[in-house]
């Protein structure tokens, strides 16, 4: 059972990273990790990759621009947008109907990965990074406090849009 650590609403909350999501991470070392979850009917209506696209790409233009600007500020290298092999510029590294792993590199030694996983009426959105340089550690330290609130907002928006489209 997944225990919540922070409640933000009835639908979306922060949790400890589940073992299943952690097992999908391919980083040599994990310097930072966090996860958020939404439990609701309809999770199985989309694949994990479709959910990842809903979370990251199906945002209002201002939110997408803010995300890409934040990524660039962290030195993150983005691939083509749109692309079948990238989700908002992050390379798809693994995909099954129940999980997708996306990741990228950066110009400053920050190695981030995202896992979106669906199971048993729940959708998990997990983030991991490895920091190889002092610059990566410094830039991440400046941005870290905004990360969980942003993930909660992104997942909540995807869930809300899903319910409004039904």
Give the topology.
Layout: E1 4-7, E2 12-15, H1 19-24, E3 32-39, H2 48-56, H3 61-73, E4 86-87, E5 90-95, E6 99-103, E7 110-119, E8 122-131, H4 134-143, H5 147-165
Antiparallel strand pairs: 1-2, 2-3, 3-8, 4-5, 5-6, 6-7, 7-8
Q: Any overview of this molecule?
A:
The protein is of the alpha+beta class and 166 residues long. It has five helices and eight strands. α2 packs across α5.
What is the compact description of this entry?
The protein is an alpha+beta fold. It contains 5 helices and 8 strands; from the N terminus they run E-E-H-E-H-H-E-E-E-E-E-H-H.
| Cα end-to-end separation | 29 Å
Helix content: 25-40%
Sequence stretches where pLDDT stays below 50 over 5 or more residues: 1-10
Whole-angstrom Rg:
15 Å
- The largest sheet has its strands arranged as 1-2-3-8-7-6-5-4
User: How much strand content do the residues show?
Assistant: 25-35%
Helix-strand category:
alpha+beta
Helical segment count: 5
Task: Please provide the ordered H/E string of secondary-structure elements.
Answer: EEHEHHEEEEEHH
Broad shape? globular
Topology, number of strands: 8
Largest sheet, described in full? Answer: 8 strands, antiparallel
Q: What's the overall average pLDDT, rounded?
A: 92
């Amino acid at each position: 059972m997944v225990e919540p650590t922070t409640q933000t609403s009835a639908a979306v909350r922060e949790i400890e990273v589940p073992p299943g999501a952690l097992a999908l991470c391919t980083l040599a070392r994990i310097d930072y990790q966090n996860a958020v979850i939404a439990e609701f009917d309809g999770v199985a209506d989309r694949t994990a990759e479709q959910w990842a696209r809903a979370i990251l790409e199906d945002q209002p233009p201002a939110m997408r621009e803010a995300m890409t600007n934040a990524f660039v500020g962290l030195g993150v290298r983005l691939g083509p947008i749109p692309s079948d092999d990238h989700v908002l510029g992050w390379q798809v590294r693994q995909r099954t109907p129940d999980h997708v792993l996306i990741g990228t590199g950066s110009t400053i030694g920050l190695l981030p990965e995202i896992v979106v996983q669906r199971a048993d009426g729940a959708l998990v959105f997990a983030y991991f990074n490895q920091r190889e340089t002092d610059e990566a550690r410094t830039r991440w330290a400046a941005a870290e406090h905004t990360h969980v609130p942003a993930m909660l907002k992104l997942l909540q928006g995807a869930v809300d849009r899903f319910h409004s489209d039904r």
